[in-house]
Specification:
- The chain contains 14 helices and 20 strands.
- The chain is an alpha+beta fold.
- It has a 7-stranded antiparallel beta sheet, with helices on both faces. The protein has a 5-stranded antiparallel beta sheet with strand order 14-15-20-17-18. Strands 8-9-10-11 form a 4-stranded mixed beta sheet.
Length: 571
């Protein structure tokens, strides 16, 4: 192959590079021990040049992991310059400010060598089940409460495992087999990516990735610039109030479209929380840039070139730019809400483009039992610690209903209840869509879920709650109604909080009602036939069809045209 790559060669190599990083990601999923990786896909994987610029990412993974990892590799190179790295080296950290936002995410970076020359870096991240400290709790007050803090360091040095670090991990976590297993899975996935990359380079007679990398980044950046340059130029502001922990939180943003860049500034956002819902700036950048790109140019590859087109700023000591040593475990509570705030700005600039607000923040159930935690002291009590991933409804779109039980913007998969039941004494008695929870609109908001969970051994268990939309629902857009708020309660009737550790007493059940997404457009503009279909499939109740949509139904469940016309005219 010549020194100058042709158009066809670039396309072939680009497609091959995508297959390399996807195999990297699938290796992680298939070898990981924790349900977060192997069932939910709460990971990221990508290939970087020797300057630490991300060239390609796997489709498998979450925006928070991928986009923050995209900035993390430079931190590794600052501490371990490229020229000092050796074949067989592997680096690791879970530093929230240099990695992906909290201690539960392990990021591993591996240099790849071809004929003795370092040609690329592979990086991957996964969310481990435990890292010690308070565990999966939003109640920490400082990072020191939250578990084992691993600075940027060697995990493997010229092929020799850092057994001291592995021993430290084993001694500090509640699930050592799973966590150490995930560490080896991270090593394996980067190694597999490296093997496939070297095969590609030898096949096409490449000695380095310099030219290919420059082409990928430049073309992606130029494509983003072309899209942004055609947009209305100006500045728009929006804000949103969410539950928070000790007090409601205001998320405020000003979005500026200027030339070929989008600038998002979070001045006006609430200050730091005393609890662990604070968000490091790297995670704020990750979900803000994802929200912008998903709305404006989802077809353009995501890499350093596209990420550089979105500039994110936030005053320090705000909840979206939390400095060390703030507690940050539940940073996703804030980060997942940021696309909704961005869309509040974009909707003013480009109407009929973005969806209504959704549940957005995940409703992951972190359930546990054990000595000193749930009042179940004694060796006869079975201890467990599991996080199972679940979601409320997404916001309605300008031309389509919102997706039900769908984790936008996170993108993680729901964990099947059978997996949770297989590895814990829990039983899920009910898991269903929550009728009527989607906000009414010309396009209806997505539905949340209702779950009912118990301990089949009849003993108490606990939940580490860190949920949003319990007080402030997802708002509709352009006349659409808000979605339903979410709640936790006991089967015996007692109310529970949506944040903080709580115990479900022996013999009782946990009832989880997840929020719905906001509606889009005037509900009275919804096709009566579509409303009748919603009733027929149990998505809304007959009384909602009449009260919210102005649609009267016949005894057969079909729209009554004359009665519907009267209802809609009477408004």
């Amino acid at each position: 192959m010549s020194n100058t790559l042709g158009e066809i060669e670039i396309q072939i190599l680009w497609n091959r590079l995508l297959s390399v990083v996807e195999e990297q990601a699938q290796t992680l999923v298939r070898t990981a021990f924790s349900t977060a990786a192997r069932e939910a896909g709460d990971i990221s994987a990508g290939v970087f040049d020797m300057q630490g610029r991300m060239l390609a990412q796997a489709v498998t993974g979450t925006p928070g992991h991928i986009n923050s990892m995209a900035r993390a590799v430079v931190h590794f190179l600052n501490d371990f310059p490229a020229e000092t790295l050796k074949d067989g080296d592997v680096l690791i950290t879970n530093d929230p400010w240099k990695g992906t936002g909290h201690l539960f995410d392990l990021t591993v970076v591996t240099p790849i060598f071809l004929d003795g020359q370092a040609v690329a870096l592979f990086a991957s991240t996964t969310h481990v089940v435990d890292i010690g400290g308070l565990g999966v709790s939003a109640e920490g007050r400082q990072i020191y409460h939250e578990g084992l803090y691993i600075p940027l360091m060697y995990l493997v040095r010229e092929g020799r495992m850092n057994e001291d670090l592995i021993g430290m991990v084993r001694a500090n976590v509640r699930e050592p087999v799973q966590v150490v297993g995930d560490i080896y899975a991270l090593i394996a996935c980067n190694e597999k990516g490296g093997v496939r990359l070297v095969e590609m380079m030898r096949e096409y007679h490449l000695t380095d990735l310099q030219e290919l990398g420059e082409q990928v980044i430049a073309r992606s950046r130029r494509a983003m610039a072309d899209v942004i340059a055609k947009l209305p130029q100006g500045r728009w502001s929006a804000s949103m109030t969410i539950d928070g922990f000790e007090a409601p939180v205001t998320l405020a943003a000003t979005l500026t479209i200027a030339g070929d860049r989008v600038l998002v500034d979070f001045t006006g956002t609430s200050g730091l929380s005393r609890y662990a819902i604070n968000c490091p700036i790297c995670y704020t950048e990750a979900y803000t840039s994802f929200g912008v790109k998903a709305a404006l140019a989802p077809w353009i590859p995501n890499n350093t070139g596209t990420l550089d087109a979105v500039i994110v700023t936030a005053p320090e000591n705000t909840i979206v730019n939390a400095p060390h040593p703030a507690a940050v475990y539940a940073r996703s509570v804030i980060g997942h809400m940021l696309p909704d705030v961005v869309y509040g700005c974009l909707d003013q600039a480009i109407p009929d483009l973005v969806p209504a607000e959704g549940t957005s923040s995940l409703w992951n159930l972190s359930l546990l039992a054990g000595h000193g935690l749930t009042g179940t002291e004694g060796s006869a009590i079975r201890s467990f610690n599991v996080t199972t991933f679940h979601s409320g409804g997404a916001g309605a779109r300008p031309k389509q209903d919102g997706l039900s039980a769908t984790p936008f913007p996170s993108g993680v998969r729901n964990v099947p209840v059978e997996i949770t039941e297989a590895i814990t004494p829990l039983v899920v008695w009910r898991k269903e869509l929550r009728q009527g929870s989607g906000g009414a609109g010309r396009q209806r908001g997505g539905l949340g879920q209702r779950m009912e969970i118990a301990n089949r051994e009849g003993t108490a268990f606990g939940i580490q709650a860190r949920f949003e939309r319990g007080e402030y629902p997802a708002r509709g857009r352009h006349g659409g109604a808000p979605g339903a708020t979410g709640s936790l309660s006991l089967g015996s009737g007692g109310a529970m909080k949506v944040k903080g550790f709580q115990v479900i007493p022996a013999g009782d059940r946990l009832i989880v009602e997840m929020p719905g997404g906001g509606g889009y457009g005037d509900p009275f503009g919804r096709d009566p036939a579509q409303v009748a279909r919603d009733v027929r499939f149990g998505l809304i109740a007959p009384e909602q069809a009449r009260a919210q949509y102005g649609v009267a139904l016949t005894a057969a469940g079909e729209p009554d045209a004359e009665a519907t016309a009267r209802l809609r005219a009477a408004r």
